[in-house]
Amino acid sequence: MYFCSMEICLKANDMGALAEAVPKILEAIDYPVVLINGSMGAGKTTLVSAICKHLGVDPNELSSPTFSLVNEYEDAQSQTIYHFDCYRLKDEEEAYQAGLEEYFFSGSRCWIEWPDKIRNLLPSEWSELSISLGPDSERIIQIRNQHV
User: DSSP H helical segments within 67-139, as ranges?
Assistant: First the structure.
């Protein structure tokens, strides 16, 4: 297995710093499937929204896929981006029945919140963003890539 790691620290609620960090984050990501981990309220959806805006997605189209399970966006190069929120899934079978696995092998960017709920449906190569809170209310974003 190959792992690469990078860490970025941002002050909480500092959207300017988040916007500046997005190019670094995208540069550190090797694969189209990106797992996003963090506790409730850590900023997972905010981070995905900032990345999508940077890629040219219309900000008016961005929303949380909590109830829809997946949102589909188009970036400035007319490439498809899928944003998943698996929090409400009961189990992997529900995700399989919904056809999520097909998205993950489509070659399109897939940003997946709460990926542990569907771990066995994911491809063997992925990038992962983990968001945690630091001691001074900063957000710590760790990035790693897995290649098997």
Answer: 92-97, 100-104
